[in-house]
């Protein structure tokens, strides 16, 4: 399955930061993603008090929903603006602290302690920093990472998952020769080979 001209496409961290600065965030959904509601029970599987990871989280409203249900939420995002907007949008007090293991990284944590958002590159993170997760909501991460970085991304995600964790993944299907992305086209065959 060919991903066409997207194979070598690279979107830089600066370009993502610029999208947030310019308010060019059509990927953000104020009402949350409809598939989240539809498959939430699959993600949670009747379990409570889970640790849920949001890769490339932006200011996803689903983080607040899960925290309100008693789960612990951890996200990562390069845009500090996005993270600060998340806390502001929900009127949540938070504190900021450095992440000793990662130069220049910050952790923004809700005062209640159940939402921790890391401002850094996802590739700077590891299970020794974050721990492991019972669930992952990947709504716009795999489709946003540069195609050449997919294997690296998925390898990291697998190291962050507990044995019985659930991974909820949203992708988009279209002709990759007609759009340059992101979101990038990730064929189902590639998802199967990446995740095994």
TrEMBL record:
PROSITE patterns per the UniProt record, alphabetical: SAM_MT_TPMT
Keywords assigned by UniProt, alphabetized: Cytoplasm, Methyltransferase, S-adenosyl-L-methionine, Transferase
Cellular component GO terms, alphabetical: cytoplasm
SUPFAM superfamilies the record matches: S-adenosyl-L-methionine-dependent methyltransferases
Annotated positions binding S-adenosyl-L-methionine: 16-27, 56, 77, 121-122, 139
Catalysed reaction equations from the record: S-adenosyl-L-methionine + a thiopurine = S-adenosyl-L-homocysteine + a thiopurine S-methylether
Protein name: thiopurine S-methyltransferase
Species whose genome carries this gene: Herpetotheres cachinnans
């Amino acid at each position: 399955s060919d991903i066409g001209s997207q194979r070598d496409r690279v979107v830089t961290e600066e370009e993502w930061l610029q999208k947030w600065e310019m308010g060019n965030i059509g990927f953000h959904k104020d009402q949350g993603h409809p598939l989240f509601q539809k498959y939430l029970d699959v993600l949670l599987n009747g379990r409570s008090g889970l640790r849920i990871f949001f890769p490339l989280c932006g200011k996803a409203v689903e983080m607040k929903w899960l925290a309100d249900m008693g789960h612990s939420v951890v996200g990562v995002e390069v845009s500090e603006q996005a993270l600060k907007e998340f806390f502001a949008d929900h009127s949540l007090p938070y504190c900021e602290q450095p992440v000793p293991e990662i130069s220049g990284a910050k952790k923004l944590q809700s005062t209640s302690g159940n939402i921790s958002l890391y401002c850094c590159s996802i590739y700077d993170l590891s299970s020794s920093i974050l721990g492991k997760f019972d669930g992952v909501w990947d709504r716009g991460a795999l489709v946003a990472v540069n195609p050449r970085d997919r294997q690296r991304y998925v390898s990291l995600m697998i190291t962050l998952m507990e044995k019985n964790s659930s991974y909820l993944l949203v992708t988009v299907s279209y002709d990759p020769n007609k759009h340059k992305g992101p979101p990038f086209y990730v064929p189902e065959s590639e998802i199967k080979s990446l995740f095994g």
